[in-house]
């Protein structure tokens, strides 16, 4: 938003124009200079702000799912939320990752390419300590991971990342598959250094330990579904085609549903005082005559009229006619 000038500043500008200290051409040149923007081709912005917002919404849902999943698995306080979502070159992301950390690579068939999840070692060790029955103490010794520790961490995050398919279900049907476990980012080369990637950073708290989980998604992975990440796609309301067997199944369930049927003898209005004074043997006068047809209600809706009687020595009611009128009548 442009700065708002005070009245004294406006008077000073008008005075400078009148005295010749400044000219209108100077303002035009300044305006033209402002139109020039510096563009770094090494940091090509290939995602629109709308698409970044959509990815943020998807991973906010993913963060909520992970919070529930890890809380149940670790049986301790877990809080995960999205901190940021940025697009940067892959090389810049790799340089920002610690030299020794927890790196999990996943494939997302049917989408091409792979994505990377980087977990802060403090978080990873705290989770592993809880899984093995500890208090969630974090000891960063990622450079000396044993085979057992590697297996436990891989399985823990492999099962957790399966929840990504639920978070992405609104834009694509994916089946995350664990592909590789690594601790040194220099040994990973998923895409070219200048490839644009989206990095979603998740603030993670496990008990008293906190750290970051970063999800790196290359542009090549998202390219086939980019149109679905636009705001217009999210606002669309698509009519779902109902299959004939679904309709038949619904009709069958409706036909076997139980509904209350009430034959109403009549109604009466009395005061609270009279109601409190009622006793055995008292008579309440109804608003209907003995020979008037009774109203039969289905649920709370009057649908028929009938007359009382007996059938096989049991109380019964004979339907006389169907009541019509209102929005409830489709006949």
TrEMBL record:
Belongs to the FliM family. Residues 253-323 form the Flagellar motor switch protein FliN-like C-terminal domain. It is a peripheral membrane protein. This is Flagellar motor switch protein FliM. It holds the Pfam family FliMN_C. The keyword tRNA processing does not apply. Keywords: Bacterial flagellum, Cell membrane, Cell projection, Chemotaxis, Cilium, Flagellar rotation, Flagellum, Membrane.
